[in-house]
Structures are given as structure tokens and as C-alpha cells.
Amino acid sequence: MSKVLAALIAGFFAVGAYAQGTSQEAAPPTNTPSQKRAEMKKDARKPGVVNQTAGDTTKVSEGSGGVTATAADKKAAERQATRSKRRLNKDGTEKMPIGQGGTPK
Q1: How far out from the chain centre does Cα 50 lie?
Q2: Do residues 56 and 68 touch, judged by C-beta distance below 8 A?
Q3: What are phi and psi of 17, to 5 degrees?
């Protein structure tokens, strides 16, 4: 009985492996009409010419995390430049900026 059960289970595994086949992700079709049109369009482009993308991506510096130069950013930069003059100690001297080390001693 156990041999029959073992043979039956092995048969199910074999049938399951046979039924899976290849997917389009494993072997994508490269001869479709839309693929041929895209390849012809790609080959027709002039080499070395890069089209500008739409939107505000040209205003964003590389590695900035997608922050664009807006009026709010300009005001924030102005406020940051004058922060030490606005934050004074009781005796009128400028406060020392807190660095990365945490709370000053």
C-alpha cells in the first residue's frame, strides 16, 4: 500500500512539473508586431540625442530626492541664512548652532 501511495505522489509531482511549461517572463516573445515597431522606432533615432523629459525633472538637481525649487524653498533658505541673527542669547550674543553631536555641553 505504501509503495502505491509513494508512486501516486511521485506521479502527481511529475505531472505538475510537466504542466508548468515556460512563461512569457522566462522567454518573452520578441517577434510580435508591436515589438518590431518599437525596434524600428529605436533604430530610427539619432545616436547621442537625448530628448528632454516632460514635467519638472529638469529643475531638480540629481540626487535631491525630487525636491524642486519653489518659492517656499527660497523663503526657507533665506530664513536659514538669518537664523543665527534672529536667535540671540539673553546677553545679545548669537547662539551657537547645535551640530550633529546633539545637545551642547
Answers
A1: 21
A2: yes
A3: -70, -35
**Is 0.70 surpassed by the pTM of this model?**
no
**DSSP character at residue 25:** T
Is residue 59 within 8 A of residue 69, CB to CB? The reply is yes
24-33, 53-62, 73-82, range with the lowest pLDDT: 53-62
CB distance 62 to 68 below 8 Å: no
Ordered DSSP codes for 31-54: -SHHHHHHHHHHHHSPTT--PPPS
User: Could you give the residue ranges of the DSSP H alpha helices within the chain?
Assistant: 2-20, 33-44, 71-81, 83-86
| Percentages (nearest 5) of helix, strand, coil residues in the chain | 45, 0, 50
Which DSSP category does 61 fall into? P
Q: Widest CA span of the chain, in angstroms?
A: 96
Q: Which whole number is the average pLDDT over 32-46? A: 90
Could you tell me the sign of the dihedral formed by the alpha carbons of 80, 84, 88, 89, in that order? positive
Pairwise CA distance, residues 102 & 87, whole Å: 18
